């Protein structure tokens, strides 16, 4: 689905600041965020709870306003939600009374019936759920429900997919399977992806780069390139060294005063 006037899936965040009013005081959530993400890149964002990483994701999604600075996708400034961005949350947020295919088709408005059917069918095939089109969410496992949520987020063929701790509620084995699945989808679709996670192994396994955020107010403390071939071996010396490097940043950050989370 072409987006008229849209150029590319690159994301540029410049001098982004976001504050909240809490009782009688103003609390800074994000401070001077500057970040450039190339088209087709997979970026992982890690940071302590309350550092503002999910707030950053919601601003990129167009779900948060009242901030200073600029967020642009391609040649367009983000001022609200749009079909050029999809988002997957930690909870699948499927509509329980709709079937799998109806959930995936929910955001497709104004298309001919045949085109809607084709897009839904293709995206269920993409996430490996072709045989579950008529099932309802309660009939699915947690991993399967998240696959449906991913298909729903991708069915409008966005240039950017935002992933807000999408596998955090899954068991360890399902989580690893879903990490492999989202990587496969990324390689097929070549969609720019931004993942927020608490899981450092997940960040390294999936990301081309890892963005480390400071405690509140959240800033981009460091960018680490993950120059490891895929599929990545989590037990390799290079992977373990990167893990240690990121953990060292967290330990250093833990020694600083930390404002309460909003």
Description:
This protein is α/β, with parallel strands linked by helices and 262 residues long. The chain folds into 2 domains: 11-84 and 158-254, Rossmann fold; 94-157, no CATH class. It is 32% helix and 24% strand. It contains 7 helices and 10 strands. It has helices at 53-61, 100-105, 113-126, 142-154, 172-189, 200-206, 237-254; strands at residues 11-22, 25-37, 42-46, 68-73, 76-77, 85-88, 160-164, 192-197, 209-213, 220-225. A 6-stranded mixed beta sheet has the order 6-7-8-3-9-10, with helices on both faces. It has a 4-stranded antiparallel beta sheet with strand order 2-1-4-5, covered by helices on one side. Strand 7, helix 5 (172-189) and strand 8 (192-197) form a beta-alpha-beta unit. The protein starts with 10 loop residues before the first strand and ends in an 8-residue tail after the last helix.
Architecture blueprint of SSEs:
Blueprint: E1 11-22, E2 25-37, E3 42-46, H1 53-61, E4 68-73, E5 76-77, E6 85-88, H2 100-105, H3 113-126, H4 142-154, E7 160-164, H5 172-189, E8 192-197, H6 200-206, E9 209-213, E10 220-225, H7 237-254
Parallel strand pairs: 3-8, 3-9, 6-7, 7-8
Antiparallel strand pairs: 1-2, 1-4, 4-5, 9-10
Q: What coarse outline follows from CA principal-axis ratios?
A: globular
CATH-derived architecture of the largest domain? 3-Layer(aba) Sandwich
**Are there runs of 5+ residues with pLDDT below 50, and where?**
1-7, 258-262
Assembly state: single chain
In CATH, what is the homologous superfamily of the largest domain? P-loop containing nucleotide triphosphate hydrolases
What's the level 1 CATH class of the largest domain? Answer: Alpha Beta
Using DSSP, what is the number of strands? 10
Domain module count: 2
Rg over CA atoms: 19 Å
Give the rounded overall mean pLDDT.
Answer: 91
Beta-strand percent range: 15-25%
Structural class: alpha/beta
Strand order of the largest sheet: 6-7-8-3-9-10
CATH fold description of the largest domain? Rossmann fold
């Amino acid at each position: 689905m072409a987006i008229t006037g849209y150029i590319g899936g690159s994301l540029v965040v410049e001098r982004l600041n976001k504050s909240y009013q809490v009782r009688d005081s103003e609390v800074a959530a994000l401070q001077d965020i500057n970040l450039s993400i190339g088209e087709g890149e997979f970026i992982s964002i890690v940071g302590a709870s309350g550092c503002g990483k999910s707030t950053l994701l919601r601003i990129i999604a167009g779900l948060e306003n009242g901030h200073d600075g600029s967020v642009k996708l391609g040649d367009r400034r983000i001022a609200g939600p749009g079909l050029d961005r999809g988002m997957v949350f930690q909870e699948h947020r499927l509509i329980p009374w709709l079937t799998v295919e109806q959930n995936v088709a929910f955001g497709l408005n104004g298309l001919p019936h045949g085109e809607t059917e084709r897009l839904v069918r293709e995206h269920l095939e993409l996430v490996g759920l072709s045989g579950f089109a008529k099932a309802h969410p309660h009939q699915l496992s947690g991993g399967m429900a998240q696959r449906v949520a991913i298909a729903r987020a991708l069915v409008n063929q966005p240039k950017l997919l935002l992933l807000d701790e999408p596998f955090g509620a899954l068991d360890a084995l399902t989580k690893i399977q879903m990490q492999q699945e989202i990587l496969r989808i990324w390689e097929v679709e070549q969609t720019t992806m931004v993942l927020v996670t608490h899981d450092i192994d997940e960040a390294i396994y999936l990301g081309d780069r890892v963005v480390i955020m400071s405690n509140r107010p959240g800033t981009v403390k460091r960018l680490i390139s993950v120059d490891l071939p895929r599929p990545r071996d989590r037990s390799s010396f290079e992977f373990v060294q990167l893990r240690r490097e990121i953990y060292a940043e967290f330990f250093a950050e833990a020694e600083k005063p930390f404002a309460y989370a909003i």
